[in-house]
Amino acid sequence: MKRSSASEPSHSTPVFDQATLPAALRRKHRTKPGVWGVIRMLEVQVKLSFMDPPQTKILARGSPGLLLPDQPHLVEPIGAMRMQVEFYERLPKA
Q: Which whole-number Å values give the CA distances from 28 to 40, 55, 72, 73, 90, in the listed order?
């Protein structure tokens, strides 16, 4: 894995839509220890649910979702959508 700054992701997922969003992301899963994630919406919305503490957010374009290291969560499409997840080795700048 390449070294990244807080403003550059170390890597990112492909762009997912409502049909290609993997089942693993639709059920409870975690970011790896020491890795932050940012869900970036390219079109429309998804529901991001955290388990501990329980919380739900609606993510839209311009309103990304921050995932903390080892944080359990799941993503649910709200109709048609497009999103990508970026991963960082340190807390990303907003």
A: 19, 13, 6, 5, 23
Q: What confidence category does residue 93 fall into, taking pLDDT thresholds of 50, 70 and 90? A: confident
Q: Which CATH architecture has domain 21-88?
A: Sandwich (2.60)
3-state secondary structure of 1: coil
Query: How far apart (Å, rounded) are the C-alpha atoms in residues 35 and 4?
Result: 11
Dump strand ranges (E) for 1-94.
Answer: 11-12, 16-17, 29-30, 36-43, 45-51, 54-60, 65-67, 72-77, 82-88
Tokens representing 23 are 């089942």
* Domain spans of the chain, in order of start: 21-88
Instruction: Find the mean pLDDT for residues 49-69.
Output: 96
Q: Encoding tokens for residue 24?
A: 């693993």
Cross-strand partners of 59: 46
